[in-house]
């Protein structure tokens, strides 16, 4: 054991022992309570009375993996819609707005049908239908009070108002003063009880622009999109979270309503509330407000299983940018008995400046500006990927990174990790858990996700217990099983010179 590691352990372990005593599962059981409403919605409440505030996290068990066929990007699109308000919020006259929105939707569907004709498309008719749609859209927009839902929350002391769409879930969260608990329960339940999908097509344009910035204008974004489409042949993880362009431009408000009706049901939602609250009060408000959501069956689970990969897959992407290297290996989902071993391997490779990849590729070989190994990509709910990612420094190529990665992988497969390395992995896991529990917002997220994924928030702690039992032999065994050539997908961004402008488009050329 090196002197630096001995010193680190001597400082960290005593501190951890003090903190852990107040952060174990037994202490949380005293202040954490769970209730499932008659309609199937689950509420987790954790008391923390240090400050007069609370945070919440609404977990909807539907992400981009649930996007319907031909409608990729729908989960993300509905996340945007969930901020548009209700019949009482976001409008000056809902009765008139509702009628105008119906005309707008009818006009758009007529335009869509004409655009999607395989034969007999009439450009003049399309032009007329586009004009009718824009007129209907302008009429509906007259009644909109823009951003009123968000403004109410922020005006009542709400902070960090946001949402996120992942492959496995969609989440909504913010924090509020404790004396605004009932207002929160009303607002959060109303947007899922009576959502109004106003400004749908304007917001669809916003999402398309988001795609352009995150993917189309980003070499890394384009690489990841092509990498996942190559690594997965059948499973929806192959589709981009933000959606394929051709799907995005054909999403309709009618499609979004169907998605909401299918996945935004009480039995598919888990909410965690953490802070200066009393469980009985939260549960009473949950019954009063969230209990209004209709009881419906939980949506059917995905049944598509990715076929076993039988040979290495490679993709080279020419870009006028710096080179980038990414490779991934299929691994089981989070329920697998070896899930904690994958977490240990990820920590061994990537956690901090003492990690193997940083020391090897960045510090010693000096061939990479960054190098990491990471698990659960792009999600955890279904079998996913363990990835290796690096960016070479100037003068070095992606092939050098590949060689260095393979050396570190082979080392894991043939040599036991050192006792000090393994102990540090386990110590860091506990310390990271404690840090994650430190803020109401972080704890709310972890409680909701653990309750949704396992049916028991205590798994948040049990996962750490499982990691403490990981052995050297486990790491070698899982590395040899997973990191094989036939299970590997590689994507490389190769640097090419920018394309010269066509003379036809230059000064004086044709346009």
Instruction: Kindly state the percentage of residues in helix.
Output: 40-55%
Largest sheet, if any? 6 strands, mixed
What's the total count of β strands? 11
How many domains make up the coordinates? 2
Ends apart, CA distance between termini: 69 Å
Tell me the CATH topology of the largest domain: Cytochrome Bc1 Complex, Chain A, domain 1
Instruction: Tell me the β content.
Output: 15-25%
Low-confidence stretches: 1-22, 503-511
Tell me the name of the CATH homologous superfamily of the largest domain: Metalloenzyme, LuxS/M16 peptidase-like
| Topology order in helix (H) and strand (E) letters | HHEEEHHHHEEHHHHHEHEEHHEEHHHHHE
- Biggest sheet strand line-up: 1-2-6-3-5-4
DSSP helix count? 19
CATH-level-2 architecture of the largest domain? 2-Layer Sandwich
Tell the overall outline: globular
Defining traits:
511 residues, alpha+beta, Cytochrome Bc1 Complex, Chain A, domain 1, 2 domains, six-stranded mixed β-sheet, five-stranded mixed β-sheet, 11 strands, 47% helix, globular, disordered N terminus, disordered C terminus
Quick synopsis:
47% of the residues lie in helices and 16% in strands. It has 511 residues and is α+β, with helices and mostly antiparallel strands.
Tell me what you see in this structure.
The chain has 511 residues and is an alpha+beta fold. It folds into two domains: 42-91 and 144-292, Metalloenzyme, LuxS/M16 peptidase-like (Cytochrome Bc1 Complex, Chain A, domain 1, 2-Layer Sandwich); 313-495, Metalloenzyme, LuxS/M16 peptidase-like (Cytochrome Bc1 Complex, Chain A, domain 1, 2-Layer Sandwich). It contains 19 helices and eleven strands. The protein has helices at residues 3-21, 25-29, 74-81, 94-115, 123-141, 148-155, 181-193, 200-216, 219-231, 245-248, 253-263, 279-289, 339-350, 356-364, 398-414, 419-436, 440-454, 459-468, 472-482, and strands at 32-36, 42-47, 53-60, 159-165, 170-177, 269-275, 313-319, 324-331, 368-377, 384-392, 488-495. The protein has a six-stranded mixed β-sheet with strand order 1-2-6-3-5-4, with helices on both faces. A five-stranded mixed β-sheet has the order 7-11-8-10-9, sandwiched between helices. Mean pLDDT is 92; it is low at 1-22 and 503-511.
């Amino acid at each position: 054991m090196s002197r630096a590691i001995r010193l680190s352990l001597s400082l960290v372990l005593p501190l951890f022992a003090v903190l852990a005593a107040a952060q174990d599962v037994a202490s949380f059981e005293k202040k954490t309570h769970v209730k499932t409403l008659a309609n199937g919605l689950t509420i987790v409440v954790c008391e923390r009375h240090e400050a007069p505030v609370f945070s919440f996290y609404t977990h909807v068990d539907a992400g981009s993996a649930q996007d319907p066929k031909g409608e990729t990007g729908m989960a993300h699109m509905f996340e945007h819609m969930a901020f548009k308000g209700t019949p009482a919020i976001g409008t000056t006259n809902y009765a008139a707005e509702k009628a105008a929105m119906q005309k707008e939707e009818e006009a758009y569907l007529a335009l869509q049908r004409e655009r999607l004709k395989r034969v007999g498309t009439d450009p003049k008719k399309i032009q007329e239908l586009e004009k009718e749609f824009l007129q209907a859209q302008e009429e509906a927009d007259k009644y909109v009070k823009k951003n009123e839902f968000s403004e109410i929350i922020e005006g009542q002391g709400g902070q960090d108002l946001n949402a996120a769409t992942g492959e496995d879930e969609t989440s909504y969260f913010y924090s509020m003063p404790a004396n605004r608990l009932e207002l929160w329960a009303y607002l959060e339940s109303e947007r899922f009880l009576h959502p109004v999908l106003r400004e749908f097509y304007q917001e669809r344009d916003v999402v398309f622009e988001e795609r352009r910035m995150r993917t189309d204008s980003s070499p890394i974004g384009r690489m990841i999109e092509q990498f996942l489409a190559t690594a997965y042949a059948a499973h929806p993880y192959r589709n981009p979270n933000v959606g394929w362009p051709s799907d995005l431009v054909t999403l309709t408000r009618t499609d979004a309503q169907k998605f909401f009706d299918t996945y935004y049901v009480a039995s598919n939602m888990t909410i965690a509330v953490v802070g200066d609250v009393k469980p009985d009060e939260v549960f009473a408000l949950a019954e009063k407000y969230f209990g209004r959501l209709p009881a419906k069956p939980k949506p059917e689970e995905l049944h598509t299983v990715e076929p076993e990969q039988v040979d290495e897959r490679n993709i080279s992407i020419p870009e006028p940018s710096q080179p980038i290297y990414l490779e991934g290996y299929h691994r089981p989902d989070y329920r697998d008995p070896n899930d904690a071993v994958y977490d240990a391997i990820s920590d061994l490779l990537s956690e901090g400046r003492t990690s193997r990849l940083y020391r090897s590729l960045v510090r010693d070989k000096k061939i990479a500006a960054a190098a990491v190994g990471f698990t659960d990509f792009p999600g955890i709910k279904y079998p996913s990927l363990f990835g290796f990612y690096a960016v070479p420094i100037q003068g070095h190529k992606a092939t050098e990174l590949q060689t260095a990665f393979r050396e570190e992988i082979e080392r894991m497969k043939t040599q036991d990790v050192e006792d000090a390395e393994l102990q540090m992995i386990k110590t860091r896991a506990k310390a990271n858990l404690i840090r994650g529990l430190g803020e109401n917002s972080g704890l709310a997220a972890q409680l909701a996700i653990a309750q949704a994924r396992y049916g028991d928030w205590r798994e948040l702690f049990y996962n750490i217990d499982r990691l403490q039992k990981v052995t050297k032999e486990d790491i070698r065994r899982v590395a040899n099983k997973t990191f094989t050539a036939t299970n590997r997908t590689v994507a490389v961004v190769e640097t090419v010179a920018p394309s010269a402008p066509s003379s036809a488009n230059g000064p004086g050329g044709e346009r």
